[in-house]
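Please check the following.

. . .
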Amino acid sequence: MRSVVTPRLAVLAFSHFTIDAYSSFFSPLLPLLVAKLHLSLTLVGTLVALASLASSFSQPAFGLLADRIHRPWFIAFGPLVAAAFMSGIGMAPTFATLLTLLMLGGLGVAAFHPQAAALAREVSPRPSLAMSIFVTGGTLGYALGPLFAVTVVGTFGLERTWVAMIPGLVLACALLAWFARVQPRRRDPAARPRLAGLKPVLRPLTLLYFVVVCRSAVAFGFTTFLPLYLHRLGWSVSQGGTMLTVHLVFGALGGFLGGWLADRWGGRRVVVRSFVLATPLYLGFLFLPDWRGLVCLVAGGFFLQSSLPVNVVMGQELSPQHSSTISSLLMGAAWGVGALLIGPIGALADAQGLHAALLALAGLLAVGLMCALALPDVRRHAVPVDLAEPAIGTAGK
């Protein structure tokens, strides 16, 4: 394990943990924000969908820039921006203000992910396991974000959520100080990757993209509506936030297992099995009563999220020269489309109830399975690497 977890990978995983904690900060506070701002479920779904425009669809632009700049500045500025804006949501007086804060904070999330994911794969000799460690850091942060949020609100009140920005600001300052001493990456301007270079891998990349869309839509949907669903069943805000944390923590553990298995089985087998196992478990949550349904939900999240790091590594293997760009497509644009589907799901919940909406959402797992079964062996379609470049210079170790 020592050869896999390098100091730089540990820093990237911890940074991912921190920024993704801010990404899920607002989910457990939705019952309070719904009451404060008088939001319908349609508006809740719209809020998540529009916020994803900033945090997800801007990632390809940051990915293209990251493949061209000489220092990993986005990794430092991402947590700074996310912390500053995401932690202010409790003070939002209107829906428009809340949406603006989430979108501005989302830009920090978008800036961080493509560059950090590309570097995580490069700083370790075992890319699948390294990516699983990096992704597990993020999913653990995403899992503990709700607990962080309810703790801050329980201690300081909804109007003082700004206190939560302190960890992100401290991390950003430390990263900026470190990266200022890192030797710049040297690049040949003539060797900059071009989007046309992705044409030979368009088919497997497209299938992989839709696999991620389906997985992300289910993950985003259940993360968004689970606290509201449980609240309507009589759970408190704190209990709902804790249950969401348990669900997400097991998802993070599944992501770590998936990366470990991908090094032994291959990525495609892991992705297919994640959908095969997750589909009946999510349906079990919706139809089984009490604790049995909740056990199915936690297990379903574990198996579904096992494919998360594998998807990214499979995409990066298709064309290593476009590592940041592909990461942005699979961690940004694909996740964004998945999040946009939450808008219609919210409208369906208003019309037919949350149970029917979550059932429709779980149906996307069958679509994801079909796309996964159609995936070829990505290594046979990979574009050869023409130039090998170090991820980060040796200065400042």
Observations:
- The mean pLDDT is 80.
- DSSP finds 17 helices and no strands in the chain.
- The chain has one domain: 7-180+196-380.
